[in-house]
Structures are given as structure tokens and as C-alpha cells.
């Protein structure tokens, strides 16, 4: 079992392609437009058995496609796992415990499980966990994130969080294709909130400013939008705009994000 | 044999007539929708528990959207205004909601209740100094709160949602005041802030985190801040120690000590979940049976009322899951 655990840890570490030392991004070439202030480094943690990022349990698209969505905005996205840290259940040691619908408790859990490397935190935090207590009866929340003021990075670095309720996604969705679509899109969507408090496209079009791109990862009703031939759920777009003059889209806000 | 055929026909008629009732129901007429607070004056950093209650007062089933705070779709919104009539920003996290297109909404029977109890500091609190990086706060002042609730699931789920009426309900509006603590409560408040800071410094050392909160309980046994102190201890025990005997004893103590606090809603809904599930499966159940199973002493307490509502909500959940299953089988 231990050997297996070590293998999983190694494998996931490998898949995320990063160790702490590699998070030093000094040597990377500057992205073309040069206005990006912050490399997006993400601490990835998971409850054992609910690892949304490993190939054997899920799909590499989650990692790769979320990364692609941020790269498209010009964000230097670098998903990191800073160590072999796995999360405890919500009630420590109790596999049947679920995550409560309470901001303070979720935030506290995320914070207690944040790991500094050489005294520094990754600037974003993504937690793949088991179950959310209120999920039931055909309606459920596959993810959640700390909110922030419109288009501003929320809260101090070590308090940011995005949860993916991976156990619930697997419970509620039986179709493997839909599981992938949902996990990719929810991850991009919630990291969008965490990264810079991105608002919902359909509620605040002023902050997205791209009527030609309604299939945005930041829309809140995407689960009801009919599928398109090119499956945008698996290839989420953070409202990238082709218009260089426009400075009021998700893409523009992301480029100006502060750490 | 004939009896079986008649029963089957009866069940089919009942199923379709229920569908018809759900299809034509206007939830604005069917629901009584109110909000309430425990009191109208609170000390800075004291939890402000808002109760939001929807009761089906019609004589038929309705399909509603349940009340989940912070949910996307914005079908349920708590609105807070300060003394200058300015909206206070919602700083809570967001939950992403997902439903299959054929989700009918939560099927609520006549007389059933959906209750949400939420600490307004969780939603509207501001981040501040070191202590208030641990728990957000509302500055002293006068505030007004009300809730907007869109109750028609078809306006949010399914292909024709744009053409549906959201069936918007507005709750009553309440006013409350937040004041600075004075006298002994001022000293208690200072101790509380110190405990918040220690909680942060001693992260990942739950034994040390718990020390100052326990000292607080010994030193200020009658403080208005006790519910939040206990709530932190509960969090430390849960995430730091796990489901130990000490944690269970703490839960019992909290239920005994604060039977009328909104704090108990969170406790009951989380730590009595198995009891709620088994109670909801019974066809009918008495109030005293609910109290006994949920280990609640006082029948007139808010905790007793919360327990009854939580059983109602679990019944709604079971019924909805059953209807979804029936629909799938029909296909």
C-alpha cells in the first residue's frame, strides 16, 4: 500500500510536471505583450482517492485544458504541487465526513492545509476533495471558490481557495465525457474567481465585453447551454477577446492581475 | 390481480396529476417567506444569525429552488444595506451549481418547510487587522437586511428558461444595530481577538489553538461571544483532532448551552445528519421522536424547530431523488 502511495505521489507530481524548485520562473521568456505582473502558481492538494489530476483516476485534460485557458489570456500559468502533501478528510480521520456549507469552515480548512516552500506560498490554491454536504436530489455544487471584489484578486495569498468536489462529480455524473467537461470547466471557472475575482459573464457583461464570445468559462449557466460541435466545455475560454483595443474583458483583467 | 391493475392505474394517475400541479403552480402564492433575527442589537464580532424560512402553505406539492447561500445562478440573495442606505458587498465564496436539464426542482409537500440559518458575518464581513484576517467583521452601525428569492426552477433549468417567470419573492425587511462592546464584554472582546490571532499563529497545532478559547470560556462564562468561541473550538476539534469523544462531548455541550442560537442549526445539519436521514424515511414522526433522536432537550427551543425543518428538508430531498428516478425509468 505504501509503495502504491509513493507511486501515486510520484506519478501525480510528475504529471503536474513540477516540483517546488521549478516554480522559480525567473528564467522563463516574457510573454509577448509584456504587461503580465504575476506568474500563476497553483498549489494542488487532494484527498487520497479523490485526485482529479491523475491519469488513472481522471483525465489529463483537467490540468492541460485549464492551463490552456489561462495561457490564452496571457497568464503565465504554472500548476505546482509543492510537496507530497495529501489532505485529511473534513473531520480528521473520518472518511464519511463531508464538507460543510459554511464559508468560514471551508476557508479555515484550505488555510490549515496551505504549505509554504522556503517560507513562500504558491499564490493560488486548488483542492480536490470528496463530498460537499448539501449535495443531493439531482442538484449539486461541483466546485466553489473564495470570492473577491469584481475583477480584483481576493484576500491575502494564503487564504485563497478553489474546491473541486471530485467525489460528488463522480457520484452525480455517470457519463465519462460529461465528467471531463464538467471538471475542466468548473476548474477554469473557479480558478477564474480565485485568480482575480472574475465575475459571471451573463451577469456582468461589462467586465467581459465580448458579445461574440458567449461560450465563456465564466458564465454561470453553462451547464444548460446546448453542446456545440467544438466542445468548449473541454476547451474553456476565459472570455478572450480578439479585439486589441478593448481593455475590459476577462483576458485584459487577468493580464493585469496583482499577486 | 385486478387489485394490482387498479393500483398501478391509480399510481399512474397520481404521478401525472402531480406533474400537472407542479406545472401550473405559482410559488409566490404557495409559499410563506419570512426572515428573522435572534435580536436587534449585536456586539462587534458577535455572530448575526439570520433565519430564512419558506413554508408551503398551499394544499398541494410545489417545485422550488432550495436555498443555498452563495450559490451561482443568483436565485437566492441576501441583501444588506448600511446606515447610508448603501449596499454592503458580499464577500462570501461562490458555489457553482449544476443540475441535469430534466431536474424538476425540489418537490415540497404541503406544510413542509425549507430553512436556512446563516451568519451574516460569513457573507458580508470585511477583512481587517490581524485578528480580522481570521474572521471578518461588520463595523458598528445600523443595517437593514432582506432576502430576494426566485422560486421557479424552470426559469433556471432547462431549454426554455428565458421564457419562464422567475416568481420572485421579497422577504420582510429587518433592521439591526452593531455596537462596540463595553464593560466586561469589552475585556472579553479583547481576549477573543487575542485568541483569533493565536489561532492563526498556531496553525496546524490544534492543541495550542484550543488553549485560549478554553481560557475564554472559563473567564467569561456569560459572555455574548461564547457562541463564536465554541464555534472556533468546534472547528479546531473537527479539523485538528477528528471525531473524538471530546468532540462529541463538545457538541452535546453546545446544544445544551445554546439551544436558541443559530449556531445549533449548523451543528444539527452537519453532526446529526444520519439521524435526520433516518427520521425523514419514516412516513410520519412525532416532534418528541425527532427531539429524542436528535438529542435535543427543550421542545420549545430553536434547536427543536431547526431539527423539524431539517427533517422536512431531508424529506424534500428524498422525494425529489425518487421523482428523478421515476422519470428516468419512464424513459
Distance between the termini of chain A: 39 Å
Largest interface: A-B, 54 and 54 residues
Query: How many alpha or pi helices of chain B?
Result: 11
Could you name the CATH class of chain A?
A: Alpha Beta
Mean pLDDT of chain A: 73
CATH topology of chain A: Collagenase (Catalytic Domain)
Q: What descriptors fit this protein?
A:
heterodimer; A: 259 residues; alpha/beta; Collagenase (Catalytic Domain); 6 strands; globular; B: 331 residues; alpha+beta; Immunoglobulin-like; 45% helix
Topology:
The complex is a heterodimer of chains A (259) and B (331).
Chain A: H1 2-15, E1 39-47, H2 60-72, E2 76-80, E3 86-87, H3 103-112, E4 124-129, E5 139-145, E6 162-165, H4 166-172, H5 176-196, H6 250-255
Parallel strand pairs in A: 1-2, 1-3, 1-4, 4-6
Antiparallel strand pairs in A: 5-6
Helix pairs in contact in A: 2-5
Chain B: H1 2-24, H2 27-30, E1 31-37, E2 41-43, E3 49-56, E4 62-64, E5 76-81, E6 94-99, E7 106-108, E8 113-119, H3 120-124, E9 141-150, E10 168-170, E11 174-179, H4 184-201, H5 206-219, H6 226-241, H7 245-257, H8 263-271, H9 273-281, H10 287-294, H11 302-330
Parallel strand pairs in B: 2-11
Antiparallel strand pairs in B: 1-3, 3-8, 4-7, 5-9, 9-10, 9-11
Helix pairs in contact in B: 4-5, 5-6, 6-7, 8-11, 9-11, 10-11
Structure in words:
The complex is a heterodimer of chains A (259) and B (331). In chain A, 27% of the residues lie in helices and 13% in strands. By secondary structure, chain A is an alpha/beta fold. Chain A has one domain: Collagenase (Catalytic Domain) (3-Layer(aba) Sandwich). Chain A is globular, with a radius of gyration of 18 Å. Chain B has 331 residues and is an alpha+beta fold. Chain B has a domain of 156 residues: Immunoglobulin-like. Chain B has eleven helices and eleven strands. In chain B, strands 2, 5, 9, 10 and 11 form a five-stranded mixed beta sheet that branches. In chain B, strands 1-3-8 form a three-stranded antiparallel beta sheet. In chain B, helix 4 packs antiparallel against helix 5, helix 6 packs antiparallel against helix 7 and helix 8 crosses helix 11. The radius of gyration of chain B is 22 Å and the shape is globular. The mean pLDDT of chain B is 90. At the A-B interface, helix 3, strand 5 and helix 5 of A face strand 6, helix 6, helix 8 and helix 11 of B. Strand 5 of chain A pairs antiparallel with strand 6 of chain B, so a sheet runs across the interface.
